[in-house]
Every structure is written in C-alpha cells, then in structure tokens.
Amino acid sequence: MKTESLEAFLRTAELKSLTRASELLHISQPALSKQIRSLEDELATQLLIRSTSGVSLTTSGQILYERSKRIMEEVGALKREIAFNDGTKVQLNIGSWPSIATAYLPSRIARNKQQDNLSEYKIRVSYSYYDLLKNLENGSIDAALFDDRGITHSFCSSPVFTEVFLLYVNRSHPSFGARDEVTFKEIKDEAFVMLPEGCDIRMLVENEFVERGAKLQISFEIELGQSILGFIQSNLGIAILPEIFVSQAGSEVKAIPISDFNSVRQISLLTREDAVNRVLLALFQTN
C-alpha cells in the first residue's frame, strides 16, 4: 500500500470531491481516480460512493479514513525526525495570535536564519484557540503559540515566555493619561476595548475580574489588538493588554503598570511531535 495512494484517498475523503482533491494534490483527476481504484483493488472493497454531487465514504472507507489519518501522521513525523537528524531542510507551519506573529516571531525567525538553520517557516494567524487546536489536530499546522493553561488537549506543551498585563491609554486621557501606575480598584468600573471571546487575553482578563468580584465592562469588541491600539491612539477608549503590545503602540499611547493585577499570560509551544517541539524550543528559548 503506497503512502501516495493513502494521501490521495485522505484528501478526497476530507474534501468530498475528486476535483478539489486533484487540484489540492496538483495531479489530474484521472490519475487521482486511478490511485483510489488501486486502493480499492488491493483491499478488495469499495471505499467511495461517487455521485454527481461529489463522493462519500462507504463503511470500509470510513475505517480506512480513520486508520490512514494516524498512519500518515506517523509517516510525516518519521520523515521530519529523520530530516532534523540529517540536517535536511524542513518546512514547519506555526499558528499564533496576530500579536505574536507581528511582534515576536519575526525576530526569532530572522535570528534563526542568521544562524544558518535549515528549517523554513510558514505562519498562520488565528483569532481563537479553538481554531489553533483544530488546525493542530488536522495537521494544518505543526505548532501553535498561545496560553493553554486550563485548556484540555493531548499535545506536547512547553512554556516559552510570560508577560504581564498593562493598562493602555491615550496620553491625553483625563483620568489616566498622566499616571505612571494604577490599581485594579481604580480601573475596575471602566469600560474597555476588548478582544473577542476565544482569545487567551480575553479569558485571562475576564478571569481576573471574576476572581476579584468585579464585572468586566466592554465598550468595543475588536478582533485585532493592533486595531485596539488604533482606537486608543484616537482616544476612543482604554484597554488591558499584555506587554507584547508595547512595541506596537504609537507615540500617543501610554502603557501603565497595574500594580495589583495578578494575571499573567504564559505563552506555550504546542506541537503534535516531540521532535518539532525540540527544534522550535531551541529557536524560541535561545537568547
């Protein structure tokens, strides 16, 4: 049984279309059909039900689909581990929040290239940890960076860095613009520009308010932290964001320590494979 045929079957089963699968695999549809027929002949069973609306799995096809997913994951892991050992160039797909993709990963990857490491990287931005976990599960990404504390999953997880939360305000803000430090009590009744649910920043800030017996009030909900900084730059609100946003804040934005804010964000590296975890930790943790 050839791995190329298993890959062809998997992509067809996932996309439910011979046409879309052939486009994804960059082969002709007749060649794809031939690979799947070869599998059916070898296993002496029908795997797909073909119709004008696409394809669906038979009972035998469903069994092969579940088992072949695990087989191809093991094959991929084996190839990557051997490549790492031999110094062969490997491409790794990393999923992260926009803030990490903007303010953290570029410098790490640039430094890695200067050290002549043979790995290549593609970055995929997500706005929800649900998406990051789903993409890890289906193999769309090889690694993810986010705060996974309190989230149940089965992936390798290694802490990379921690950061405190700060209050971001416009320098002309009447209450806080001239302050060098604030307390939670002084800001707890304010309304904040916030990231949406499903983001680790939002969860950590909400948890802090709940633990302190306060209600988080939201004036605007915006997907991008960089856009939140734009609102603050225009004096349209204030926000509680991690330290990583300091480097992206404009000259009119001031980041103020919150002296008794207990929550910190711990960014961890999540991977499906130990070998990938070791390689990326070396990239992220080396000064």
UniProtKB/TrEMBL annotation:
GO cellular component: cytosol
CDD domains: PBP2_LTTR_substrate
Alphabetic keyword roster: DNA-binding, Transcription, Transcription regulation
Gene3D superfamilies registered for this protein in UniProt: Periplasmic binding protein-like II, Winged helix-like DNA-binding domain superfamily/Winged helix DNA-binding domain
Alphabetical list of PROSITE patterns matching this protein: HTH_LYSR (PS50931)
Span of domain HTH lysR-type: 1-58
GO molecular function terms listed in the Swiss-Prot or TrEMBL record: DNA binding; DNA-binding transcription factor activity
Superkingdom of the source species: Bacteria
Family indicated by similarity: Belongs to the LysR transcriptional regulatory family.
The protein's name in its UniProt record: LysR family transcriptional regulator
The species this protein was found in: Paenibacillus albus
Lineage: Bacteria, Bacillati, Bacillota, Bacilli, Bacillales
